[in-house]
Amino acid sequence: MKNFSGTPGTFLGMILRIAQFSFAAGSIASIATTPSFFNFTAFCYLIASMALQIIWSFALALLDAYALVRKKVLLNPVLISLFVVGDWVTATLSLAAASASAGITVLYFHDMGNCNFGEECQKYQISVAFAFMSWISISISSLIMLWLLAAG
Amino acid sequence: MKNFSGTPGTFLGMILRIAQFSFAAGSIASIATTPSFFNFTAFCYLIASMALQIIWSFALALLDAYALVRKKVLLNPVLISLFVVGDWVTATLSLAAASASAGITVLYFHDMGNCNFGEECQKYQISVAFAFMSWISISISSLIMLWLLAAG
Fold first, then answer.
1. CA torsion sign, B26 to B51 to B105 to A42?
2. Which end of chain A has less neighbouring CB within 10 Å, N or C?
3. pTM of the entire structure?
């Protein structure tokens, strides 16, 4: 397997993982501090999905850091297959959760005029924005992983 | 480039394209017949996204049919790159639109108790289900295309 920038065990790969779990943590922090998020199924799903994203990306960031420090190469086909499946599952769940929450945020902000929940509305928007940023970084990782696996 | 099942110009490839635009057409037919879909940004976005899906998948289904009838091979790297980009863009837009609409449907059905829009609610649900089925078939096509391009 060819080793290019962004693959597991490289500096860019680790930066992408750190971006993923940081944005996901920002998203949870923003929405979990609103008093009424539990009334919305989509927001609960967003929290669950972002929590999964944090666990997955944090574990892979640690693995990347370990590989960088010990100068190990992580390009084992079985390991990469596992990363591909995990990345695609979390990326799909993150996009779905971010879009569902964005749909509700737009419904309250745009379709029903001004949002009646006061400061909470801004927090919903910030959380959705963070979730989309997390999705962008995980989708870059997913594409790199699939490319690496397919290119052999 | 290796020619395997599901690549452009194969029978399975054409079946996937037909499934994509049929489900997308079902989704539009179901939501566009409700009298109040234009009040929801997410539902308008769903229609726009599914319309794009129909145009893209129908054009590629025609190309597949042409390749099958004339027994031509469509495995040109430039052509495949174009298909990869188009597939990924439409797949992402479809998932985002389906999730945003699903978020709103769940909000009305589950979070707010029974939906007050009568028969419309059922149509919203059917439309979202069709949109997800369309996304599943386009995502299979996208993975095959990216694999084909990366494997060379």
1. positive
2. C
3. 0.90
